[in-house]
Give the backbone structure.
Amino acid sequence: MTTGSGDKGRDPSARSYAPDFLTELFRNPLDPGYAAAAERRRQVPPSRWRRLLSRPVSLVVLATIGLLFAVAYRETVAEEPSRAKARAGLIAEIKHREAETDRLTAQADQLREEVGRQRDAALSGAQASRLRNMEAGTGLGRVRGDGVVVRLADAPRDKDAVTGADAGPDRVLYSDLQTVANDLWAAGAEAIAINGQRLTATTTIRQAGEAILVDYRPVTSPYEVTAIGPGSMRDRFDESRAADLMRYLARVTGMSYGVKKAGDLTLPAAPQPRLRYAEPSVSPSPSPSGSGAAGSSSPGPSRSGTSSSPSGGGR
Amino acid sequence: MIAVLALLVGVVLGVYLDPTVPAALQPYLPIAVVAALDAVFGGFRAKMDKIFDDKQFVVSFISNVLVAALIVYLGDQLGAGGQLSTAVVVVLGVRIFGNVAAIRRHLFRA
């Protein structure tokens, strides 16, 4: 009922279709002020002093606009070097920090070797050699031996001149490195390093933007995957799926791939893993609180002991 | 003709005097340039339509610059400076395009 009366009361022809704001803006860009001013001038001619004064004022405004353009241009041009300077500063800082990290890593390695030497001196021969073998297996110790070197490199970059896009996926991807490393393990490798970064059980090979990170350290093309293992490793790797894929990619995309046997390789130790969770082994160590009840009560105190240690902090 | 000369004089003055813009005003410079361009093209079109008015030109330039700067300032205070700058540039840009189109129609009858 109300709608009926409403419809009746409204006259469809009286409805005005006002153009929306944007349409109005596009259709009539000129200030209506100019037209209004012209209209006013036609009705009431302006006084003489105003006619005399207004011309110079608008010329001054025009000169101001020109000044504004020039200043804006100069500002824009002047800003460019400061931006480049900031960028160069950041790059220098990155380089500096990287050098510092390298120095500290070298120092850590040195100290670790020292610790290893001291430990070897303290331990008996059998225990020491067992420990050394385990370290070699887990990547915590430096190892030497014969093996193979797999070399992967991005194709020389020939960018499309028009779009700037790469001609194809001719770059080595992190997954390529992953498959190569995995198939090297499968082929019997005992230790693997990528560009000098030793792989351990917890090492990640990931992509971050354009860069490939091995254990959170960037590596760049050419990539050398060095593996130490038995003599049959080379042939077994050549038959693997990764080798097949790499040969195919090298043929199709133009990135380079090569495997060669190498003798007397030295792989560095991986950085010390960050301990997240640890429990002291119960049986051999004579703990100061050692008693007959240690077996039943050890989980409680030992866990609280590890969590309070500084290295076990995180998660 | 005199107007173009005045514009050139301004440019030359700017190049030779090389005034430094205080850092506080720097964000408003691009907006001011766009507002000035709008005023210039608006004035030129009015000239073509033979309804140019000096007072209208002066007032429109000053108010354009002030309003644009005010909007950007408000936007900065509200944390939406970038978006409001874009809004100002879009509105003035549309006007510039429309005015240039009208000038083009006057000059080339196309």
User: Anything to note?
Assistant: Chain A has ten helices and eight strands. The first strand of chain A starts at residue 143 and ends at 153.
